[in-house]
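Hi D.,

Good news: the full-assembly prediction came through. Inputs first.
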Amino acid sequence: MKKHNKPYVEWLLTLPSLGWLTLFFIIPTIIVFAIAFKPAGVNGGIGEGWTLESIRNLAQPSYPEIIFRTIWISVVATAVCLFLSTPVAYWLALQPPQRRQWLMLLIILPFWTNFLIRIFAWKTLLHSEGWLKYALVSLGLVSPDAILLYNSGAILVVLIYTYLPFAILPIYAAAEKFDFSLIDAAHDLGASRIHAFFSIFVPGIRTGLFTALMVVLIPALGSYAIPDIVGGASSEMIGNKIAQRTFVDRNLPHASALSACLALAVLIPMMISLIGRDRRFTKKTGGKKA
Amino acid sequence: MKRSRFPLLISVGVMLFFYLPIFLLVVGSFNDSRYGGPWRGFTLKWYERLLTERDIWAATENTLIIALVSTVVATCLGTIAAWVLHRYHGALQRTHYLFMYMPLVVPDILMGISLLLLFVNFSAKLGLTTITLAHITFCTSYVTLVVLGRLQDFDNNVVDAALDLGARWPRIIWNVILPMLGPGIASGALLAFTLSVDDFIITFFVCGPGSTTLPLYVYSSMKHGSPTIINALCTIFMAVTAIIVITGQFLMNRRQPVQQLRS
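Then the structure:
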């Protein structure tokens, strides 16, 4: 295959996007970690010199609770999303192709509605005069003075609502390629339905499950708008604290220290995902070269 | 063989879960009751009241300016980036891909605060410019991945054939690459546009006085305004997004004839 023989052509074409991302993504990320070691300045600025004050501040008694809550809410939301998406993907993959396309559009459509609108729809549903409250009270499931909003439960429901389509897409992509005759074979060999589902289907779509795990867990850990709108003072997450330190207290070093913490928390699942992607990338390029 | 009904039941449940809240929101926007809830009769007064809110028009204008500029810049950056990533496979491209991929996995709030700190550090004035710079950053990653996906089934031989026939690069780009990649670039641009119009968290961190966008307006009215007006605003917003998405689907489906032509 004929190529540009001059090496500077590659650099010239890479430079705009690589330069942009270095300036507006890599450098800002480094700045976050640097400012965590700076003192707060007057008028919400950044002071001179270096200090460990913001890092020490992370030991504040309220933080471990917030960090723990952020982790459990995100983990439960992810687990529920995976639990619901797997049967949906299984069902979708078994539909005739024509209908499948149409159903996929139905699943993607709510993902295209604005994020805030989806949160707001739930806020009005859970509101003391909302439909859901009304329905639950008429069914006698909750007492008329129960409060459905402003707690961890409300955050959990809205998180699941927001990220469920993102979980269905990769699992469905994997299920679509799954060979369903394997399940029939398992049945013929005497496996029960549930046994065949868990020991053949689930391992068969594990790459999809893995991607789904990443696309729900990482944004859930960093969620801000959802706990801000449907959560309350007793259900704050790390995101709320970052915003509060930034906009209310105007203490940017504290906000940076918290952000650095969050960055480290998402780094673990992210590195696993990046290594996975990278391996695929090198495999692809290796194949091309050969 | 008879299959279990369990997956069907879950799927129906999930669909109801997806659509009921949105449906009730749309219904609520036509309800003549101040706080939603029980039906009090059909009305369009919330839409009328919406038209008199001057701030909405200013916010719409800001949103469109930001979205247009970021889409154009991100589409150019992303298309070139996807082409280089597709064409070359050295260490430079591996770093390039890593940088491109990372903004997609980092939570929005981290991107928001890191950009805010960058702008504060360089004493940049927060406003439309800083929002646009932030939007270009995440839109570029999305455009690149969409175009790169389309390049997977791009036939390099066509370009080589054109080279062999003596065509120069500008002509190849204009007459061969762009027409073949057109639908891919268009759907990338459309994605960038919708993401820019929809973005709240990153915008929230890097906005300044007088640079309110529609999502920022929706957010502040959620916190302070009357819920029914927001229902009306959300309904319009959803209708517009639906039109854009359907156009996008149409463009994506149009790439099939191109592939057929090729094979």
